[in-house]
């Protein structure tokens, strides 16, 4: 029986080649895209799941109620970990975490590596398996160090590293460490890993902040005792936080802040470690990807699959008109309804199976291109995991049941007697077909609309004036081999006689995202005239205002002729507004009672020192503060930019010979801030193209069926004098109506969804109504072009030939 079903199914598929090809093409494309997108989403959600204790690990963060609203701060003060472990028995393990660039020396050879500063519990909390060493003991001494296997091999080769002494420095101070452990390389789906790990107390700034509750500079992870309710644990922290931050809370009350629903002004909350990779509510550890982005990938996958399934259903139901006599004859000869259903569902399952088999090698072939286009770290082995295979099999069954089940059900309901007497007439433009066509084109128009809006927003982000000149600037990350101030002084000396260089300065944090991936931020809060103020910091070098072409509104820039400028500050307009001073020049700001007050010497016009996702914050430009110079900025004549890159590379090789030169153009760094938006745009572009092509493939086949079923009507109309134009209008009119309905449905959906997306930007475009109209017109024109050829062909067919057809 099964053999006969398969034989008949293959014959029918070969007989109706156009339908088979369209269905097979649509399903293959849909399966391939769904495999790429859905497995990508699965991979992103799998981050950190390999940690055995992951469900009990949390990152702590502050939630503070300010007069401007709730603010989150993920960085912690140094004493927090000890206080939590001492006062709360629910805390089983805890580790502070901070990462710095570093340099290791062994037997006269130097290696530039990342240094991760953690606590002794780190390897007991997280599942970073050790090849050599005991997880509970590898960091029990301050002078111990753990290397991952790649670093250990690079330094020691085949030599056993355990017990060996290496020297390491992160900011210039060399120290000796004993290698006590070698760890396996962490999986790619990990929020963070380590190259070298040592005790947190070895971090250079630790002695200055060890007892400071107001200074926050690291992330803190805690592991709760299994079974602990994290919400109850957070509630239990209220008394501790209220006591520890009583002064801060009083300041918030004084300034008009309102408590949250739990009556708290400052809370210490827990961010689940397993959800950290997809939580963009605050700065993350390691890579962070938006849940909105992942949900968008799933939505696109579903849209493409729905369009392919709609095509399949429409063509199958439409083709049933030509197979009605086959069904009638089968029933007359004794076929049961379930046998008829099995035959037609089997054909659907066969097409789906062939499409799936083709899509797997296509997935393998397209994966490298997909990773490049969408900046994905997806690997081929994800496809062969048991969970992935089970999910693919379940989706395959669901799709074959949905796409093939309804047409098979239609066939079983046919009356065999009426079919054979020729009295059965199937409706060829019923509500289902129209509904599916409307749905297809509504999805296509929605995706085209989203493409236009994201494209316009991305262009806006790239072209909006930032308040400084980014077109002539080369950005060079300093690294750890030489201090930032020394590197700045040496680079200035080497470029002093270079006519193409206009100025050189330094900065504590890169503007945008440099080639080193570095993006740092510093901030502080203090009282001014009995009012709490908050300010972002940028530690700069001389000539920063000149190099960046900032607009100086009053006062002056830093100058080497003023020895007091180490205690001076230049502020922006937002900071002036926050201070409430009409003329802030000469104002003294005390941010730390242990430090000399800072004197305001200048005011610059607001500029976007952060991405356009955020508003311009109050800012202070300072010199010789605790933050280091991490980036050097070189302003070059516009016509000499490419040529100067080679000279800068050579100069850097003399200044820091063991460090890689990672210079880049500042405008490119700015663009890298919007990689997520660029990925959004690419997704919409490719999805819109696929959606419109698949929709039009189905429309093309339906137009052929509609013309076949109206062959005699068209012939009679032509014989009675109908023009070619009226025939084309007759065929296309119904389809055009459906597309207009799709426009009416899709346009408000696109407007609402894209407005919600744009709310994530402090600076954004206004959606123009004619953009959405254009999206609908694009879909309409493509659809008319698709059915136009078949309509014209039918209109110019000899009516005699049409009337002779059966």
Automatic annotation (TrEMBL):
Keyword hit for Ion transport: no
Q: Could you give one GO CC term from the UniProt record?
A: plasma membrane
Q: Is Membrane given among the entry's keywords?
A: yes
Q: Which residues cross the membrane?
A: 21-43, 293-315, 344-367, 387-410, 431-455, 683-708, 735-754, 769-789
Q: List locations, semicolon-separated.
A: Cell membrane
Main location as per UniProt: membrane
InterPro entries named among the record's database cross-references: ABC3_permease_C, MacB_PCD, Macrolide_Exporter_MacB
Note the Pfam families from the entry: FtsX, MacB_PCD
Name the UniProt key words of this record, in alphabetical order.
Answer: Cell membrane, Membrane, Transmembrane, Transmembrane helix
Topology within the bilayer: Multi-pass membrane protein
Tell me which residues make up the ABC3 transporter permease C-terminal domain: 299-415, 687-799
Q: Which residues form the MacB-like periplasmic core domain?
A: 20-237, 471-610
The terms under GO molecular function for this entry are: transmembrane transporter activity
Q: This chain belongs to which protein, by name?
A: MacB-like core domain-containing protein
